[in-house]
Backbone:
């Protein structure tokens, strides 16, 4: 007869199994957005039946991997100090963001093949809101341009981060250079027309 501890122990075992599968999915899909369920099960050290016992379909597993990656990224970005000068704060945020974007590019490509666009936008809402609030604060302080829509500026920043991550992945930009290039590009983009370059933060030294 099962003991009283058997239930909690089985739940703990199941949670560890799920964590291994999701971690393996993140790793596999980040390397290859077309990674199969078999690839992921092998990397997690579990059988197909075990994997399908937790995730009924590959899209469900892809979503779990993306959600896990977004949560990890949110934890990292929420620790960035966004107080003080909006320009300095944005530089710190960009310095922390580009590597997260680089890690998630292939994973996002996998998700875009199997998940609704609305779900992907929902998962990216928090990072977009953080950047939007920071840009709006800089506009109110008179240090960021106000002639372009904030939504457009957010999207352009995201494209810059993706482009830098791709350049780094392809070996056309050294890792130590990425933050400097990204920050300099975004500073130029957001600087109001006619504003002096003095007072704008320098990219972090490496």
Residues:
């Amino acid at each position: 007869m099962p003991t009283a501890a058997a239930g909690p122990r089985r739940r703990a075992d199941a949670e560890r199994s799920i964590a291994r599968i999701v971690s393996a999915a993140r790793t596999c899909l980040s390397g290859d957005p077309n990674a199969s369920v078999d690839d992921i099960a092998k990397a997690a050290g579990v059988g197909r039946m075990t994997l399908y016992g937790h995730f009924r379909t590959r899209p469900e597993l892809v979503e779990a991997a993306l959600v896990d990656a977004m949560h990890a990224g949110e934890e990292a970005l929420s620790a960035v100090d966004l107080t003080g000068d909006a320009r300095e704060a944005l530089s710190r945020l960009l310095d922390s963001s580009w590597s997260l974007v680089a890690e998630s590019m292939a994973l996002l490509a996998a998700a875009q093949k199997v998940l609704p666009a609305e779900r992907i936008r929902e998962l990216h809402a928090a990072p977009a809101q953080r950047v939007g609030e920071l840009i709006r604060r800089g506009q109110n302080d008179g240090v960021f341009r106000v002639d372009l829509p904030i939504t457009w500026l957010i999207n352009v920043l995201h494209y810059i981060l993706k482009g830098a991550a791709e350049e780094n992945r392809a070996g056309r930009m050294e890792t130590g250079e990425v933050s400097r290039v990204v920050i300099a590009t975004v500073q130029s983009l957001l600087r109001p027309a006619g504003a002096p370059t003095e007072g704008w933060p320098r990219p972090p030294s490496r």
About this structure: The mean pLDDT is 88.
